[in-house]
Give the backbone structure.
Amino acid sequence: MASPTRLDGVGLIAMFMRRLSWSLALLAVSVLHARAGAAKTFDHVLMISVDGLRPECVGSELAEAYPGLARLARGPHTLDARCDPDCSITLPNHVSMVTGRPVAGEMGHGWTENTDPPARRHGGTLSLRKGSDIDSMFDVAHDHGLHTGLVVGKWKFVLLEQSYGEDAGDQDQVAPDDGKDKIDSFACTPEPMAIAELALASMRDAARKGKRGLTMVHFPNADFAGHGQGWDLTDGSTYRKSVQAIDEAVRRILAAIDAEPAWKGRVAIVLTADHGGGVPFKSHTDPAAPINFRIPFLVWLGADTEPVDLYEINASTRTRPPPGERMAIAGAPPIRNADAGNTSLALLGLPAISGSVANAKQDLATAAPMPAGGAVKAP
């Protein structure tokens, strides 16, 4: 994000207009929630990305093998979501998740590399690369007084810390001032159970501060296994074993939520993937291969309910693409992983990410009970 400049008359007017836009966005969210007859927001949202997760691992045929993932599918979900329309690559798709922007185009975030970013001073932030501010879900949550966390399994995700950390973060747009560092805690480890414990630690940090929270969690292991031994779905394969380890970590998170009275029914989970994999067999680079771009999108609303097809309850705003197609032929867009950021914010009763494209109207229905006001800071 751009460094703050001296606030002359023009700067003060610009800040006032931006805070007014936040206020109007909150009002719009409140009206939308009221129309839905909603009654509740969540105290914490975990946005989980399982890197390289094939949707078959969540399907009914493998439900017994992965009970944690199967439990998250007891609610609104689809196994027919899509990654970015132009690429099925890890880092660009994760940037889309947190910014609500596609990779390409005028409104895209423009980050196409999939390697460790250069240092911040050498252009290693999203805004410096784009040449204009690229806001994120961390900006919205932190500016509204929430605790924010980022737990990842690959070091290249330091791009997000560099882009939204203290040295690059934007000024708080919602009074009172919570500072420029939009990510309160950042950790990187490849071990699934350690990732789960760090995610729970982020939630506990929020509770100690008397705050609600938003934490992004990234599991890398299915992708590691796919690149090493292939996206092999046969029983006993390295890929299947890696998903099992992730499933155990997901179950650990769910067990902790169940055991904590202050969390039970108050924590929502949005789980998706950056891409699938298998074409080529040890990669996912072919953008035309359905097993590369078809992904799951699950929304767990703090309790086990009956499974609901996300496309069915969003028939007026989302279109299921034909089998084998990255995009809907006509009409509304498909459900994409880039919807996850604004979906997570909606579950917290917060407005959409400024400049976002995916789910910018926060009209992806999840049947979550959401209030007209919610416990958010006044702009």
Q: What stands out?
A: The domain at 9-347 is CATH 3.40.720.10 (Alkaline Phosphatase, subunit A). Residues 30 and 372 are 4 Å apart (CA to CA). The mean pLDDT is 88. The chain has one domain: 9-347.
